[in-house]
Design a protein that fits this description.
The complex is a heterodimer of chains A (613) and B (397). Chain A is built from 21 helices and 10 strands. With 613 residues, chain A is α+β, with helices and mostly antiparallel strands. Chain A folds into 3 domains: 183 residues, no CATH class; 152 residues, no CATH class; 181 residues, Glutaredoxin (3-Layer(aba) Sandwich), CATH 3.40.30.10. In chain A, helix 8 runs antiparallel to helix 13. The two termini of chain A are 32 Å apart. In chain A, 48% of the residues are buried. Chain B is mainly beta. Chain B has one domain: 7 Propeller (Methylamine Dehydrogenase, Chain H). Chain B is built from 2 helices and 29 strands. In chain B, the strands form 6 sheets. Chain B has an 8-stranded mixed beta sheet with strand order 4-3-2-1-22-23-24-25, with no helix packed on it. In chain B, strands 17, 18, 19, 20 and 21 form a 5-stranded antiparallel beta sheet that branches. In chain B, strands 5-6-7-8 form a 4-stranded antiparallel beta sheet, with no helix packed on it. The chains are: A alpha+beta (613), B mainly beta (397). Chains A and B meet through helix 8, helix 18 and helix 19 of A and helix 1 and strand 3 of B.
């Protein structure tokens, strides 16, 4: 019945199945690409061996273009964030992601932000909502690909490009997925993960994109720690700011709790292992009883860590680092509740990446790489490659392997990026949403029941008079407050999207209200929905007896309810071919948001297209 | 001399600190909300009742009152001499946007549906048998969300029936229509009324429509000039300001016309004004072309909200005020009498209705259950007089 406002469950089997199918198909594509890369690798190696054999050599020259090994700080960032991206990608495999991510993760994150942030975030949400399967699958591959890219490309342009790609994707996720980490919202606090986990991924990506020489002195480590210190001091000030609810565990002995206690209690409700839930609950109870003391500890710790990091002095930085890591881990466990539980967790939240950045900054400060020349000979003494060496002599086996692996990682990213880009440019939602909500169209091939009614212009219209054109038929209540105007817009959009083929199709609605059914109402409805100027739009009505006959013959239920309810009627649409035969019966419930309406339009157009051709 | 890299690093550090300070400042000093002319608690509610010699009508909000989509507005009718109210809500349209009633002194009653969700115009319904049967009609645009947005004058022996409707435009526009309520034409807008007759009032939006005792269209407006009551009447093709000019201490600040009712030859208006010192309600009356009289002001505190307004048959006017807390305080006023505070009502009460016999009925709503309380004339205790369950179809819009 219309107006019931049905919505999809996050685990809708049709969508989940399509998600898994898309992932499987993309995996097959990646296997083909991997096979291609393996063949390419073998071809290169074969050429190399033949050339070597032709010159009577058996081994490659040992060549190193790097004056020192990969700096330790950089290696920590690269491997840690590579693993984090892979983990995030795997978390995106959760079945609830296609449908639940916008409503359960993105929109709540933006809900307390200013209007302009919500508008910006909604533009991203609409892409995801319109194409949930493509977007969710794309996110899996992009994040897994970025992770592998960072892991397999340790040095050089490939590695720096990986850092840049990581920062770029991180920025997209930070803006559209985390609503700028909530920094424009009123409840900003370090304890809840400000300024957003992915901002640390961006920072790490930018550091990895720097040239190797940036890590050659302690300066970079000092800068990282100083910026982190300033951030900690800012967060301490914010944490200490009065009136934000952090100084109270329980407010005036009432039932209201302080901000931190409320957050912790909420996190304890997340589906998770029992022991974890009990820890989080226990901390919530502790904070409710000692909110002032807990906040004091947080403020003092943040401020002290911040000041110590800003000094850049090793003897102060090291204990500050240890304290920061301990604080991060405690917060991660007791406040952020690990971050990735509950079925729609997308990452382990901010504390882990923040701690990694701090450690990398410290290591970059204290462990400056030692040039290779100073400790060991660079090359095999017997065969030294010269500047005039040919490519097959420069391309050592490890170089070829790493290049092939990096290319494979880029391919994984591209397998995700390409459909995501296509989805972003397509404003029309995927038909699968409508099918998931309303079921798949029922294919028919029977004569369509005839009707003989008058249209909004007062002209008599019957099915025979529409012969020769495909008819998209539905039933609309002209004074309906919810579904019917949305369905009418879906028909209007279908008409627009048909473009040159529109003259071959008529869009017909029959009144589904036994009381408000006169031509004045169909005209008022047409004006409201901007349908009055469409030449191929017919809104038909007649006597109650005529309408009842048509409703009965098309199986449309129309019921009058009392006490201020609107007319209840079936949301059904039919596609009738040019010979007057019913070809498809569709449920056209517009669903809970515009994505479903757009999806129905796509589905209707698919069916019309099938009948037209 | 410092290196370029050093300068860059310092710049990054300074920028980071500045950004942190800016975030903190932005959070510490959020923008302030702007104020409106009339405080929200004095916005006139759609919940209303009116009694005429032909019976009593009440518009009552029911259902889940905290959820607008599941708040349904029900219409009840009590025939003269009857003891039980009947549910007579017109079928066929979702009324969770609100109902407005155009109830003439005698004859058919017109009901308008306020737009809701995706419906942007106002279906109408007409009944000449106390709501037993309804004839659909149409307002091709949106009725204003005001209890006096619709006025109906039935056909008489020598005059055709007519209707007036106040519709939503920037300042308001009045349309005139036939007795069938199909086929409306513009009558006057706020700008036109201002230019024709509204200088001394300083019209601030149109608030209500009615047919005057002589049959001429009447429009109630807000007035920017203190002490002016915005009632305008079309007489002999000319609009004239016929509302009174209040004298001190009643005249203090700009006024808003909350209600306008014509009962036989009597006109009753409910006026609100508000300034820094507070808000207050004032009733004005005129009988048979005589001079205007006014009630004493009824102060409305900042923790109080106007829940319903209603007219009796002899110029009585009742209001229901919520707060502070869960209190529901009914107040009644009549020509020549002060405001009388009636005994408190249960917290679920949403509407009061002055009846023709001097008694008052009150509608206490709990979801789809309705209990009617009656305060007999001269009594000081509300008595439960009726109870009914209304078959509300939640989620049906």
């Amino acid at each position: 019945m219309g107006g019931m406002g049905r919505s999809l469950q996050a685990g809708n089997s049709i969508v989940v199945s399509a998600f898994h199918t898309a992932l499987f198909h993309q995996l097959l594509l990646l296997l083909v690409i991997a096979a291609g890369l393996a063949i390419g690798f073998n071809v290169v190696r074969t050429i190399q061996y033949r050339r070597l054999a032709a010159e009577g050599r058996a081994t490659f020259p040992a060549v190193s273009k790097w004056p020192y090994p990969e700096p330790a700080g950089r290696r920590i960032l690269r491997i840690s964030f590579g693993l984090l991206w892979v983990l995030d990608g795997l978390l995106q495999l959760q079945a609830a992601m296609p449908l639940a991510l916008p409503s359960s993760v993105i929109q709540p994150a933006a809900s307390t932000s200013p209007q302009w942030v919500q508008h910006l975030v909604n533009s991203g949400v609409s892409i995801w909502s319109n194409h949930p399967v493509q977007a969710a699958a794309a996110t899996v591959w992009i994040q897994v690909g970025l992770g592998i890219w960072l892991l397999v490309a340790p040095r050089g342009l490939w590695s720096r490009a990986g850092g840049l790609a990581s920062a770029g994707w991180g920025l997209i996720v930070w803006i559209f997925g985390e609503a700028f980490g909530g920094i424009f919202g009123p409840g900003l606090t370090w304890l809840f993960g400000a300024p957003g986990a992915v901002l640390f991924y961006c920072a790490a990506g930018v550091l990895l994109a720097l040239p190797d020489r940036a890590f050659a002195t302690p300066r970079l480590g000092r800068i990282v720690l100083a910026v982190s210190g300033a951030f900690f001091i800012g967060m301490a000030v914010l944490q200490a700011w009065p009136g934000r609810g952090f100084w109270q565990g329980r407010i005036h002995a009432s039932n209201h709790v302080g901000t931190l206690t409320g957050m912790v209690q909420q996190m304890a409700q997340t589906p998770q292992p029992g022991f974890l839930s009990s820890w989080v609950s226990a901390f919530g109870a502790f904070d409710a009883a000692h909110g002032w003391a807990v906040n004091l500890v947080a403020v003092v710790a943040l401020a002290a860590i911040g000041v110590a990091l800003c000094t850049g002095r090793r003897r102060l930085v090291f204990p500050a680092l240890v304290a920061a890591i301990a604080l991060c881990l405690a917060d991660w466990l007791l406040v952020e509740d690990l971050g990735f539980l509950g079925g729609v967790g997308t990452d382990p939240n901010s504390m882990v990446p923040m701690a990694i950045v701090l450690v990398a900054g410290y290591v970059a400060l204290v462990r400056v790489p030692v040039p290779v020349q100073a400790s060991a000979p660079v090359v095999d003494a017997t065969v030294v490659a010269t500047e005039t060496s040919r490519w097959w002599e420069k391309a050592t086996p490890s170089y070829v392997v790493r290049t092939a692996a990096a290319l494979g990682a880029v391919a994984i990213v591209l397998v995700g990026t390409a459909p995501m880009a296509l989805a972003a440019t397509n404003p029309n939602a995927d038909p699968i949403l409508s099918e998931a909500l309303n079921g798949t169209p029922n294919m028919l091939d029977t004569p369509a029941p005839p009707f003989h009614l008058i249209d909004q212009r007062g002209t008599t219209v019957n099915l025979a008079s529409l012969r020769g054109r495909v008819v998209a038929l539905t039933f609309l209540d002209p004074v309906c407050t919810s579904d019917c105007p949305l369905i009418a817009q879906e028909f209007r959009q279908a008409d627009q999207r048909l473009a040159a083929e529109a003259p071959k199709v008529d869009f017909v609605a029959i009144v589904a209200n036994p009381i408000y059914r006169s031509v004045s109402f169909t005209n008022a409805f047409d004006r409201q929905e901007s349908l009055e100027h469409l030449a191929n739009w017919f809104y038909l009505t007649g006597s109650v007896a005529q309408l009842q006959h048509v409703w009965d013959s098309y199986g449309v239920l129309v019921g009058t309810e009392s006490a201020g309810a609107m007319i209840a009627h079936s949301d059904l649409a039919f596609v009738i071919d040019a010979e007057g035969r019913e070809r498809d019966a569709l449920v056209d419930d517009p669903g809970p948001d515009s994505a479903f309406g757009s999806s129905f339009t796509s589905l209707l157009l698919d069916r019309i297209d099938q009948v037209l051709h | 001399m410092r290196s370029a890299a050093g300068v860059r690093a310092t710049s990054v550090l300074v920028a980071g600190v500045l950004a942190t300070v800016l975030f903190v400042a932005a959070l510490a000093f959020p923008p302030k909300a702007s104020a409106t002319a009339l405080p929200p608690q004095l916005r006139v509610p759609l919940a209303t009742a009116v009694t005429t010699p032909a019976g009593s009508w009440a518009v009552v909000a029911m259902g889940h009152l905290s959820d607008p989509l599941n708040t349904f507005w029900e219409l009840f009718f009590l025939a003269p001499g009857a003891s039980r109210w009947s549910l007579v809500t017109p079928p066929g349209v979702a009324d969770n946007g609100g109902l407005v009633a155009g109830v003439p002194f005698f004859g058919p009653v017109a009901i308008g549906f306020e737009p809701s969700q995706q419906l942007h115009y106002s279906p109408l319904a007409l009944s000449s048998d106390g709501g037993a049967h309804w004839t659909p009609a149409l307002m091709p645009t949106a009725l204003s969300a005001a209890p006096d947005a619709l006025a109906y004058e039935p056909a008489g022996p020598a005059v055709p029936g007519r209707a007036l409707a106040l519709v939503r435009t920037r300042g308001g526009q009045v349309l005139a229509g036939p007795a069938s309520l199909i086929g409306w034409a513009p009558l006057v807008s706020d700008r036109a009324l201002m230019a024709l007759a509204g200088r001394s009032c300083g019209i601030e939006g149109l608030d209500a429509v009615a047919f005057g005792p002589g049959g001429g269209p009447m429009v109630g407006t807000g007035c920017r000039r203190p002490g002016q009551v915005g009632i305008f009447t079309l007489q002999g093709g000319l609009w004239r300001q016929t509302g009174p000019t209040l004298s001190a201490p009643l005249a203090g600040s700009p006024t808003e016309m909350l209600r306008l009712d014509v009962s036989g030859s009597a006109i009753t208006g409910l006026v609100a004004d508000s300034n820094g010192a507070g808000s207050r309600l004032l009733a004005v009356w005129r009988h048979g072309g005589g001079s205007w009289s006014a009630s004493a002001p009824l102060p409305i505190g900042p923790s109080q909200t106007l829940l319903s307004t209603a007219f009796g048959v002899g110029g009585e006017l009742a209001v229901l005020v919520a707060g502070p807390g869960k209190n529901r305080t009914p107040e009644e006023v009549a020509p020549g009498r002060p405001w009388i505070r009636l005994p408190l009502l249960p917290p679920g009460t949403t509407t009061v209705a002055p009846m023709g016999n001097g008694s008052i009925d009150a509608f206490d709503v709990h979801g789809s259950h309705l209990r009617v309380y009656t305060l007999a004339a001269g009594a000081n205790t509300w008595i439960s007089s009726q109870s009914m369950d209304v078959p509300i179809a939640y989620g049906s819009s």
